[in-house]
Amino acid sequence: MHEFPRGKANDVDAAVAAAEAAWEEGTWAGMSAAERADIVTKMAQGIEDNIEMLAEIEAADVGKPYRQAAMTLGGAAGEGKYWCSLGKVLDAEQDVPVNSGGGEGGVPPAEWDVVYRRDPIGVIGLISAWNYPMNVAFRKVAPALVAGNCAILKPSEIAGLSCMFIGKLAQDAGIPPGVFNVVTGDRDAGAALAASPSVSMISFTGSTLTGSKIMGACAPKLSQVALELGGKSALVVFDDTDLDKAVETTMKGFLANGGQICTAHTRLVVQDSIKAPLLKKLKEELEKLPFCNDPITEKDRGDRAWEAGMTDVVQPVVCDSQHKKIMGFLHEAKAAGVEVLTGGDVPDDETVGNSGGYFIQPTVLINVERDADVWQKEVFGPVLSVRSFSTEDDAVLEANSTAFGLASTVMSSDPAKAMRVANRIRAGAVFATSTGEGLLAEHPAVSRGGFGFSGVGRELGIGGLHEYTELKSVNYTGFSLADAKKQRTG
Ligand code: NAD
User: Is the dihedral of CA 56, 58, 63, 65 positive or negative?
Assistant: First the structure.
């Protein structure tokens, strides 16, 4: 579909040098966050103004239905504006008096002015994934720039075309030269960026394995990392849940974006007493689902997960290597005796009506052992593994039985039970619901991130903006902060 230069270490070095020069020159960091936010807002507006074009690009690049791409791109623009609205919040946090936090014995002497500031970090690297290319990348670009850093974005080599547009948006918005840079390339470019001695932070979204390599590359120079990694989220369904809603939520949870979503709920933990009817209905519904014919031109159908609470079309996975990887998981599971309730294979061309796509049947695996790869590892495709439980304690044990901890959901019509279980689940974002409403939802103001293998740090919300800053205290003695401010302005 398109070709990018495979950026090498010298290309990364050139971008880092440009960012370093802009950082040392200091104009960007010297502006108020609100001033910077006014400029970044133009970039967010640029996404909004070009949604149709960008959605066609992402539909072609990722193979996701146009409708879904357009919807999530709208989310990227809206989220960008949210980040910009935090510019003035960040300004208001400069020079705020340190308080004791409510504990005893922590207050500095009353005659001292001790204040906090939030400084930008410096030159930072942003390395992104392909599943929601613009959303993942702009979720880093916007806060990094509003906070006053100079940044280098390295989009995914698998689907990074829409991210190239961020470079144009930065130019059009009037971001000073060198403050924002894009380098195309694969893992070598990413590794060069992570290892660069001039890069003081890496914000990364991608797989757990790559995240740990990046942490390793950053360790010798003690640079900061923010790692948004993989997941193996559980959907816990108690037998007091409405059956239709449970089935709908299960489908949305593991099929949205073809299962290629970090918070995909790919483990179903269902109470024994509802297991048989739930699986029967799930199989019927999955086998009725049509396949997506053409992600770009077929604009009236698509993944409706975000609007109607139901995925209504099966999309292809992103590329040959992912297709092979997912099929490898399925072959191994079958060889190990895991039972396939439905799916488990590549659909024939006649069923799909579109030969050539990287399609996989929506697959449900039952009788899965807790130590099986399909229970423990991220498949990142349309594959659901099922286990059951009898007691509340068992439900918690099953939900917490992987090294990941990105998201999870508990479904029950009993609010107190849902709350008890939600509070015991170890994941960065937990949904407690009787209806399934809100599953996979992300609100820009709500910080999220992973426990364990799912990451380090938090994205979104004011906490997400703080990730791109260094907290600093300034201790004034002999004169007051007010004196200092008066001298500076006067
Ligand atoms: P990936 O780890 O293969 O690649 C991600 C990025 O890292 C790419 O830009 C790639 O070029 C780069 N990279 C690869 N090796 C590198 C290295 N050694 N050093 C530096 N950079 C390197 O992941 P992917 O396949 O692009 O994305 C899918 C993964 O992303 C899934 O695990 C998914 O769960 C995760 N993801 C997480 C979130 C989240 O918010 N937690 C969101 C989206 C995707």
Answer: negative
Q: What is the three-class DSSP state of 15?
A: helix
pTM for the predicted model, two decimal places: 0.96
Instruction: Please tell me the distance from the alpha carbon of residue 469 to that of residue 121, in angstroms, as a whole number.
Output: 5
Ligand 1 proximity of 154 Cβ (cutoff 6 Å): yes
Q: How far is CA 276 from CA 240, 252, 285, 334, in A?
A: 14, 20, 14, 21
> Cβ of 49: how many Cβ atoms within 10 Å?
13
Structure tokens at 291: 């396949």
Is 442 close to ligand 1, i.e. is its CB under 6 Å away?
A: no
Other CB atoms within a 10 A radius of the CB of residue 306 amount to 18
Q: Whose CA is nearest to atom 19 of ligand 1?
A: 191
- Residues 350-355, mean pLDDT to the nearest whole number: 79
Structure tokens given for 290: 């049509």
Q: How far is the CA of 228 from the centre of ligand 1 (A)?
A: 9
Q: How far is the CA of 337 from the centre of ligand 1 (A)?
A: 31
**CB of 205 closer than 6 A to ligand 1?**
yes
Residue 299, token pair as written in the block: 């604009």
- Residue 290 has what pLDDT? 87
3-state SS track over 129-158: CCCCHHHHHHHHHHHHHHCCCEEEEECCCC
Nearest Cα residue to 444 out of 134, 85, 60: 85
**Å from CA of 107 to ligand 1 middle:** 43
Query: What is the mean predicted confidence (pLDDT) over 1-22?
Result: 95
The residue type of 356 is: G
Phi-psi sector, 448: left (phi>0), alpha (psi -120 to 50), beta:
beta
Judge if the beta carbon of residue 262 lies within 6 A of ligand 1: yes
The whole-angstrom separation of Cα 253 and Cα 250 is 5
262 tagged catalytic:
yes
Coil, strand or helix: which one is 55?
A: helix
Mean of the per-residue pLDDT values of the chain:
94
| Amino acid sitting at position 201 | M
Asked if 271 and 386 count as a contact pair (C-beta separation under 8 A), the reply is no
Among residues 248, 262, 398, 467, the one annotated as catalytic is 262
Q: Collect all residues with Cβ–Cβ distance below 8 Å to 56 and sequence separation of at least 6.
A: 66, 69, 296
Helix (H) or strand (E) holding 125: strand 123-127
Is 380's C-beta closer than 6 angstroms to any atom of ligand 1? yes
Pairing between β-strand 201-205 and β-strand 123-127 as defined by DSSP bridges: parallel
Q: What is the pLDDT of residue 67?
A: 87
Q: What is the structure's pLDDT at 309?
A: 47
